[in-house]
Amino acid sequence: MLFPCRTHDLGLLLMLTSFFVSDSSSSCVDGNRTLSPTEDNTWLAVQMGTKAVLCCPHIPPTSVLILTSWKIHLRDKPSCTISLNRETNETGKNNCTDGRISWASRPDQNPELQIHPVSISHEGDYTCQMGTTDGNFELTYHLQVLVPPEVTLSPGKNRTVECKAIAGRPAAQIFWAPEGDCVTGKEYQDNGTVTTRSRCHYPDGNVSTVTCLVSHLTGNRNQSIDLLPGAKGTEKLYYLYIFIPVILVIGGFICCLKISGYSLFHLYRKCKLKKPEATTVVEEDEMQPYASYTEKNNPLYDTINKVEIPQVSQSEVDGTGLHTL
Questions:
Q1: Strands 41-47, 135-146: parallel, antiparallel or unpaired by DSSP?
Q2: Could you tell me the end-to-end alpha-carbon distance of the chain, in angstroms, rounded to an integer?
Q3: Which is more confident, 86 or 225?
Q4: What is the side-by-side order of every strand in the sheet holding 65-74?
Q5: With contact defined as beta carbons under 8 Å apart, do 93 and 74 qualify?
Q6: Alpha carbon of 307 to those of 13, 160, 312: distances in Å?
Q7: pLDDT digit string, tens, across residues 167-218
Q8: What is the rounded CA–CA span in Å between residue 68 and residue 60?
Q9: Which residue(s) pair with 182 in the sheet?
Q10: Is residue 262 very low, low, confident or very high in pLDDT (cuts 50, 70, 90)?
Q11: C-alpha distances in angstroms, 106 versus 53, 95, 298?
Q12: Residue 294, H or E segment
């Protein structure tokens, strides 16, 4: 579901965040520090991937400890128990199959429970029960696993900016400075994390820089981005970054083609002009000997042509002038 976002509640949210974080530090675990619990039920927030150490309640100095047990109720998993009999120093029932949940040290000396490393599947209730000669003492932890979100800020079209707090647990809150026309929504993942997405539009061209403020139990984060003036400043910037390299590459390629084409054209013309001259010289050189030969007189041919053929009269041709040998 989408809802408009405003920044005037930012101070109140930051105060509430500090309150809940400090409240979680009053339990036995605060990061790497071990504290003494003062309540029978304690809400405990632990960041994923860290080590959590849970303490048992204090008992009067005059009491004799007989039995210590941890009852664990995880979400979507069957409950399990870890116990120790102090009279015999023997561990009792232990049906917890998760190897990341164990005694912090020797249970006969220190009954603390250790979870290392903490994952989302460890979220649930952990109860330490101590049986003494003065009665039973009990302390329950409601363990909440925190996952810090990944924050991204990116420009959109028409002076629109989008901020995301990805895969946080619990869901992060997003605020903007300065205020804009904003719409915020949440996407729930199967692993229990939530992605918060907020998109803001800044039609006022006088706004040059905007900041996304993300509030979360693991810590507050912020990112800023610059906006170009004009109704479509960010869109123009986006296309400018894309098309300038393309134009430079195409322009350089065209210049190379022009330079190469100019050189080849002159080389082609030079070869074309020289080729007919070479052919003419060769033809004249080949034809000259033949011309000299035809112009020379052949004495033999002329002598044969000069042989006189005896004249035959018409009567001889007709047969009237035949001579008898």
A1: parallel
A2: 149
A3: 225
A4: 41-47, 135-146, 124-132, 65-74, 80-85, 90-94
A5: no
A6: 141, 119, 16
A7: 999 999 999 999 999 999 999 999 999 999 999 999 988 899 999 999 999 9
A8: 15
A9: 200
A10: low
A11: 14, 18, 137
A12: helix 233-295
